[in-house]
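ok here's Solute-binding protein family 5 domain-containing protein, seq below lol
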Amino acid sequence: PLPVSGSHTLDFWHVRDRVRLRKNNHYWDAANTRNNVVDFLPVEVAATAINLYESGQADIIWDKSLVPTELLDALSHRPDYHKFNYLGSYFVRFNTTEKPLDDPRVRKALALAIDKARVVAKYTKGGARLANHFVPPGTANYTSPSGLTHDPVSAKKLLAEAGFPGGKGFPTDFEYLFNSGEANRNIAVELQRMWRETLGIQVKLRQAEHKVFLSEQGSLNYHFSRSSWIGDYNDPNTFLDLFMTQNGNNRTGWSSDEYDRLIRLANATTDPAKRNELFRSAETILIADELPIFPLYFYVGINIYHPDRIGGIHPNILDIHPISAIYTKEHPSAAKK
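and the structure came out like this:
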């Protein structure tokens, strides 16, 4: 058997069928482990996941991607639908090494031309929230500053000031890079339309397989790119340090000595209030002053399970649920027997 120190041991792993875990009686807190056997089903298709759940062959759907988007509106009214704030942001990256995207006025014009409310209402399901900042709400007692909102008049003015009135003279070979997925494609088409109709800019769309997409982003072989980030831990730093000059996840070519200074100072500060104020100053540079990125919306977390059947699950911003705490509730009808 595989040596483990956790609440469960590996019983078996059947490829394309299930991974079965069994209670570890040698676990330090075994007396409080609420279940004996747990099966994890390796499902990749949302329709398969919901069918397994509805037929009683699965008790919980944890992964939001396994909830069919076309059913979200209907599912959201059911008692087994659980929605919560999630530590994830969907945003647009600008390659600031490409002219004229090296000009903050151009980046701001492109951002101000986007009607985020329309994007969220039309192409996201399940309660995604419009983002006017980068760090998700509910992150470790932190409150973000406000960034730019939809303002077509200011967008046109800034683009003209940058030398491209009505989009004249703007490069015609610029591309918006995105990876596979219906929602990503729909949003790409919508951004393309907004930039064309508001600014007179023609942008091509380039879809890439996920590994290629990440490689192209990392090598700055793009102009605009669909992007997202899921926090590793509940703290604003897991989002804001991404765009420090030497961070490998920056992937915009953007660098700011002042931004780097503020992030380093924040992480050397022990007073929570002062630390958060430093982070707010840095985030203002990121989303309002310099804009190497433009936030679109915040992800929402979704779990599907019957609260009268399953206990021990508590929605949280990291969507972390200790297996040892989850248990099957005794059905009321069975308890009366």
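fwiw The domain at 86-299 is CATH 3.10.105.10 (Dipeptide-binding Protein; domain 3). kinda neat tbh
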